[in-house]
Amino acid sequence: MEIYLPIADLPVNVFLVLAMGLAVGFISGMFGVGGGFLMTPLLIFIGISPAVAVATVSSHVAASSFSGAIAYWRRRALDLALALMLLAGGIVGTISGVWLFTELRALGQLDLTIGLSYVLLLGTVGVVMVVEGVRALLRARQGKPIELRRPGSHTWIHGLPLKVRFKQSRIYVSAIPVCGIGLMMGFLGAIMGIGGGFLLVPMLIYFLRVPTNVVIGTSMVLTLVTMASATILHAATNHLVDAVLALILMVGGVTGAQFGARAGQKMRGDRLRLLLGILVLAVGLRFAYDLVVAPADLYFIRSTAEEQ
Amino acid sequence: MTAARTGGAVLLVALAALAAAPAHAERLVASLSSHVVQITSNFNGVELVLFGIVEGDDAGDPPREGYDIVATVTGPRETLVTRRKDRMFGIWVNAEARTFANVPSYVSVMANRPLDTIAAGATLEREHVGVAYAALPSDRAAVGDEPFADALIRIKGEHGLYSETDNAVTFLTPTLYRASIVLPAEAQTGTYEVVVKLFADGAMIARADSAFEIDTVGFERFIAFAAVDHGILYGLATAFMAVMTGWLASIIFRRD
Questions:
Q1: Which helix (H) or strand (E) element contains residue B47?
Q2: Counting one residue from A and one from B, how many pairs have CB atoms under 8 Å apart?
Q3: B36 part of contact set with chain A, CB < 8 Å
Q4: Would you call B245 and A67 a contact, using CB atoms and an 8 Å cutoff?
Q5: Does B241 touch chain A (CB under 8 A)?
Q6: More exposed terminus of chain B, fewer Cβ within 10 Å: N or C?
Q7: How confident is the model at residue B180 (pLDDT cuts 50, 70, 90)?
Q8: For B77-107, what is the HEC assignment?
Q9: Chain A residues whose beta carbon lies within 8 Å of the beta carbon of residue B78
Q10: How far apart are alpha carbons A22 and A18 in whole angstroms?
Q11: Which of A35, A97, A98, A29 has the alpha carbon at shortest distance from A61?
Q12: Mutate which of A301, A307, A308 to disrupt the B interface (most B C-beta within 10 Å)?
């Protein structure tokens, strides 16, 4: 069944988009991430312009983060105070991200920036995750104990001023890295159409020593608010959010996530992280391929002022 | 398309009445099967029928042999940027660009035989007949723009938005002609102008104008307009929809 997307301005098959939503939702539920880093590229690969893809996926990630955040909230497995401080930076990041997005679009370099950001970010994070994942698997095979977080260990981050105590997470940390991480997530999210859960969760664990039981719930609150604001800002400034496409993706996404979460519980954590790493790396490589391989057509056209 | 047939029949009666009116030379009459095309959620392109008649002159001479018809449909105008990718540091980036203002979003040139057999190149250029002349009249293409202009016409053609068809116009009788205008799903909303030119012995002797409208209706129209006219409200509504979807999912799939 073909449906006409009013903003993307092209007809798509509803079942194809729904299936994409389900598949990405399944993966996002399995790994506890929003799935934006998969959904945005998939939309670009089926022919939706990168700008519309990024703007529309924000709302899809907002939906999946909210259903996830509710589940964690019911179990009190999130740190609201920490989430609020992350958000202070996150909102600023989102606003500057949308601003840069608009500027780059006017310059005609938005698609390249999106592509390069995916290669750099997903390539780096993917390699790190795969290396870590393989090491963990090898350690487990050799029967060595898995390295645990040492609560007493301090890094330079703990030497920064403006320290705040977060009761739920039982951490005492400077507000600067908290706001900084929020800012970075908001910024990247607005430009790349990702919630950034795959990046945010490890950062919260490694840099801020947030305990694993609250980290996913907390990251989902941040993702929910930054992605919802990105949706509003993209809609207000660039008019690029396709509500029809977003709705189909959301319905598929939140449904798929439920089944993914069940599948994820049956798998071992280290294997899951390795799989996620491979997936992240694969998406990064796919973008690298597009940037390096000679395009089929050197020219392309784009309308600057549609529907005046 | 029953509507087209009824429209055709009505028009033929009108034509018969018109044919009796005196005129100085050949006159050209053109009409369309429909003047409004509505885009709904399952819009997948549409076909309109253009038809009309060549009227002889008042001297009562028998109509000349060998009329040629060229119909040009041009869609709403837009400003297009053509960009070329170049290799830089091993990756392909958008390098040079040219902006073409006021370019038709859609051009369809339909004739009854190849354009170069209908009239000389200079005549075609003067009359803006042919995709290239209709889309980008030569005075607009500066030196060095040709590859970009050619790419624009080629890419538009690949999307079915620019086309030139030699055998699209058929003469049902020596003076009664008909052509199908094919509009792809990507066709933009707005006013489409139809200009029909009558050629004989390599010269343009009459023209007729018509137009039709492509309109989005219902939900799509609402969405498309809301997104542009009320961006903030639209964004808030979409964000609210996301939150509601997430909330509903957490209720439906609740497992405790």
A1: strand B46-55
A2: 197
A3: no
A4: yes
A5: yes
A6: C
A7: very high
A8: EEEEEEEEEEEECCEEEEEEEEEEEEEECCE
A9: 303-306
A10: 6
A11: A35
A12: A301
Q: Is-above-0.80 flag for pTM? A: no
Closest partner CB to A6 (pick from B78, B85, B220):
B220
With a CB-CB cutoff of 8 Å, which residues 102-161 of chain B face chain A? 105, 147-148, 151-152, 154-156
Among candidates A74, A239, A244 on the partner chain, residue whose Cβ is nearest the Cβ of B228: A239
In eight-state DSSP terms, residue B152 is: H
User: What tens digit of pLDDT does each residue of A227-246 get?
Assistant: 999 999 999 988 889 999 99
* The pLDDT of residue A173: 82
For A66, nearest residue in chain B (alpha carbons)? B246
User: What is the 3 state secondary structure string of B153-215?
Assistant: HHHHHHCCCEEEECCCEEECCCCEEEEEEEECCCCCCEEEEEEEEEEECCEEEEEEEEEEEEE
Which residue of chain B is at minimal alpha-carbon distance from A10? B186
Residues of B in contact with A11 (CB under 8 A): 42-44, 185
Separation CA A71–CA A78 (nearest Å): 10
Nearest CA in chain A to B92: A291
Tell me which of B18 and A31 has the higher pLDDT: A31
Q: Which residue type is seen at B238?
A: T
**Least CB-CB distance to B238: which of A235, A258, A293?**
A235
pLDDT band at B3 (very low <50, low <70, confident <90, very high): very low
Asked if residue A234 lies in contact with residue A240, where contact means CB atoms within 8 angstroms, the answer is yes
Average pLDDT, stretch B180-206? 88
- Residues in chain A, pLDDT under 70: 144-154, 304-308
Q: Which domains does chain B have, with CATH numbers?
A: 26-216 (2.60.40.3880), 217-256 (no CATH)
- pLDDT at B71 > cutoff 80: yes
- Identify the residue with better confidence: B25 or A248: A248
Which residues from B are below 8 Å from A65, CB to CB?
Answer: 246
Average pLDDT in chain B:
81
Least confident piece of the model among B3-17, B120-134, B144-158: B3-17
User: Quick one: pLDDT at residue A92?
Assistant: 95
- Label the pairing between strands A163-166 and A171-174: antiparallel
Which of B203, B161, B92 is CA-nearest to residue A301? B161
* Closest-approach residue (CA) in chain B for A292: B91
Give A-chain residues touching B92 at CB under 8 angstroms: 291-295
CA A152/CA B205 separation, integer angstroms: 93
Closest CA to B98 of B81, B85, B84: B81
- Residues from chain B that touch A60, judged by Cβ atoms under 8 A, are 242
- The mean per-residue pLDDT over the stretch B200-220 comes to 85
Confidence of residue B21 (pLDDT cuts 50, 70, 90): very low
pLDDT value at position A123?
Answer: 92
Instruction: Give me the DSSP letters along A87-103.
Output: HHHHHHHHHHHHHHHHH
Residue among B92, B239, B246 minimizing CB distance to A67: B246
Tell me what ipTM this predicted complex has.
Answer: 0.82
